[in-house]
Amino acid sequence: MDAWSDIEVELIVAEYFSMLSKELSGQNYKKSEHRKKLLPLLNNRSEGSIEFKHQNISAVLINLGQPYIKGYLPRFNYQSILDDKVIDYLIEHQHIEEQFKQFAEGDFVHPAIRKAFHKLLVEPPSNTQLVEEPVAAYTRSLSENSLRPYMEASGSSGPLARAQR
Question: Would you kindly state where each structural domain of the chain is located, as residue ranges?
Answer without folding.
Answer: 6-105
